Amino acid sequence: MSYYGYERLRPGDALGIDMSEITKKVGTDLRAYEKKKGDDKESVAKSNRDFAELLATMPSSYNAEFNAFLGEASSLYSTDAAQIQSDFANRRIDKRTHDIQMANLNSGGKMMVDSLTGYTALINDLEEKKEAGLLGKQDLYRLSQLQSFADLGNVTLVLDPESKQPSLVKVNEDGEAEAMLINQFFNDVNMKMSGPTDTTSLVSNALKQAGIQDITLKDGSQTIGEFAGPEADAALTNAAEAGLAQINQLMGYATANVITKDGKVINYDYAKLPGGYLVGGILDEEKLKKLQAKNPGIFYQDLSGTYHVSDADRKIIIDNFKDDLKFASDYTEVQKLEPTKTKLDPYKSFDSIIDVMEILNKNGQKVPQDYIDLVLSAVPGMSKELFEQVTEGIEIEDLPEDITDSERKDREEAAQAKRAFEVATEARTWYDNEFLNDLTGVNPEEEYDLNGVKDLFSGQIFGVETDVINEGDTTPNQIVLTIGNETIYEFGTLKPTAKDLARAKTDLKGRLSMNQKQLMYTLVFPEKLEYIKLGDGFILD
Fold first, then answer.
1. How does pLDDT run across 38-84, given as a tens digit for each residue?
2. Which long-range contacts (C-beta less than 8 Å, at least 24 apart) are formed by 269-272?
3. Strand, coil or helix: what is 6?
4. Burial of 252 per CB tally in 10 Å (0-12, 13-18, 19+)
C-alpha cells in the first residue's frame, strides 16, 4: 500500500536515515579518537623521556660555580616540566601548548649546556686573539658580554612563564637587571669573530662597485678614477651607501676610524639596550629614537642580538666614508698646499739635522758647505743667522784660501765623483721607494700615540707636536707635523691609526719640495753627507 506523496517506510529504516552508516561512522570516529588519545599519551610520554634524558646528561665535571649553576638550572627545569604535565593533565593547557613548552624546555636546556661548555673551550683562544690585536671593537663588545653572562656566580637562569624560553639574568653595578636570551649567548659562542675592520678593502670594494677602475701612470703612481661632474655628489653618496649597506660594515667602519662632525670627534661604541624598550617582544621605536638622540654614538643591541643605528649616526658615518672614497678616487699627486705658520716651537725639526751633523763630526769629518746650503733652502724660517745660532759648535768644511778655484774644484770632484751622482739619485727617489713603504704589513687599524708618531717620523725634518683643532680650544686634541715654523700636516686626532699615518705620508709627497725630500734622505743616511754636492744631482728648487 502506498500513500499520496510518501513512500512507505521499510523495516530497518528510521525516518529515511540509514542507521547502519551512522553506526559505522561513529565507530570509526571513536576508534580515531581513541587512537589520537593513545598518540597524545605517547607523545607526552616521549617529551617527558627526552626531558629526563636531558637532565640525566647534564655535565658535572667543571668548576664548582658551573656545577652549582647547572644544579639550580636542573631543579628549575624539573619544576617547570612537572607544572606543564600537571596543567596538561588537568586541562589547563591544550596539547599544542604542552608540546611547545616542553620543546622549548628541551631545546633551551640543551642550548644552555652546549653554549656554556663551548664557552669554556673558546675563552682562552679569544683572550689570546685580544692580546694579539686580532679582534675588532664589535668582537670585543661580544667578548665582554660573553664574559659578563658567563660569570655564573652572578647570573641567574630565568624561564619565560608562557614560552619557557630560557634567559641569563644578572644585576649590573647600577642595580638594574640585564638579560641575554640563551639562543643569543649560544650564537655569540658559535659565531666567528669578524676581526678588525679592513677600511682599505671597504674603500676599494665600494669604488669597484661604483665602476671606478685603477689606472697606473707612467711614473708608477696610481689613480683610482674620480668623482667629477654635476652628478658627482649623488654618485659619491650612492657609492658610500652601497659600500656600507650591511649594518656590520657600517658599525665596523665607524669604530675603526676617526669619525668627525663639525670638527669634533665622535667615538662610537656598543651598549646593551636597557630594559623597558621591548613590549611583548616588540621594540618601542619611539622610545628607542629618544634614547639614541640623547646618547649619540652608541650602537644599541636588543635582547634578540639585533643592533640599531640611528638615522643621524648613519648619515654622519656615511659622510665620513664619502670623504675616504673621494680621497681615494681623486688621488694622483696631492696639490701642493700653502703651509700655515705654526705657533709651535719652530726649532723642533732642527734637532735631527743637528744630530746627523754631530755624527759626522764625531767620525772626524766636517760638514760639507753644500749640505749647509741644502738645509738653508729646505727648512722654512731658516736663515744663515739662525743656522749659526742653532749649530754653534758644529765643524763645517772650510777650504784653504791658498788654493785656486780650479784646484778646489778638482779636489771636490776627486773626492765625490765616485758616489755623488749615485747618492743624489738615491736621494731623489728615496721618498717613493723607501719612506712611503715602511708601514707595509702593519695592521691598518693599529693606533699610535704621540710617542709612536715621533718614533715613526724620528730622524726626519718633521717636528711632532700636539696642537688644538679649533681656535679657542685650550686642550690639545690632535697631533701635527711641523717643518721649521710651518705646520705641514694635521692628523685631527691624538690617536692616528697606521692607515692615517700612511695617508699622511702619501699626502706629504705632493707637499714637500725636492729639497726637503733630499734633506730627509741625508738624515736617514748621515754617512753619505760627504758625497753631497749641488750640481751632481742634488738640486735646489
1. 445 455 545 555 555 555 555 554 567 777 777 787 788 888 888 88
2. 269/137, 269/141, 269/297, 269/298, 269/299, 270/137, 270/138, 270/141, 270/298, 270/299, 270/301, 270/307, 271/295, 271/298, 271/299, 271/300, 271/301, 272/145, 272/178, 272/300, 272/301
3. strand
4. buried
Range with the poorest average pLDDT among 69-78, 246-255, 263-272, 273-282:
273-282
| Strand 215-216 versus strand 222-223 pairing type | antiparallel
Under 8 Å between Cβ of 467 and 485: no
Query: Do 518 and 357 form a contact (C-beta atoms < 8 A)?
Result: no
Half-sphere exposure of 533 (CA within 13 A, CB side): 19
Q: What is the pLDDT of residues 364-381, one digit of tens each?
A: 888 888 888 888 778 777
pLDDT(148) > 90: no
Amino acid occupying residue 247: I
Torsion angles phi and psi, residue 28, rounded to 5? -65, -45
CA 176, CA 241: separation in Å to the nearest integer? 37
Q: For 214-343, where are the E strands, in sequence order?
A: 215-216, 222-223, 259-261, 264-266, 269-272, 278-279, 282-283, 298-301, 307-308, 340-341
Spatial distance between the Cα atoms of 377 and 354, rounded to a whole number of angstroms: 16
Task: Check the CA dihedral 48-49-54-55 and report its sign.
Answer: positive
Tracing cell 596543567 back to the chain, one arrives at 87
Rg over CA atoms, the chain: 38
- Cα–Cα distance, 120 to 117 (Å, whole number): 5
d(CA 309, CA 287): 14
For residues 306 and 180, is the Cβ–Cβ distance under 8 A?
Answer: no
Instruction: With both helix axes pointing from N to C terminus, report the angle between 311-330 and 232-243 in degrees, rounded to the nearest 10.
Output: 110
* H helical segments located in 244-276: 247-256
CA distance 392 to 358: 11
Q: What would the pLDDT profile of 378-419 be if each residue is shown by its tens digit?
A: 877 777 777 777 778 888 876 555 556 666 566 556 555 555
Round to whole Å and give the CA distance between 299 and 270.
5
Q: Letter for the amino acid at 300? A: Y
d(CA 419, CA 497): 38
Average confidence (pLDDT) over 344-355? 70
Give yes or no for a contact between 248 and 142, defined as CB atoms under 8 angstroms apart. Answer: no
In 215-313, which ranges are E strands?
215-216, 222-223, 259-261, 264-266, 269-272, 278-279, 282-283, 298-301, 307-308
pTM for the structure as a whole:
0.46
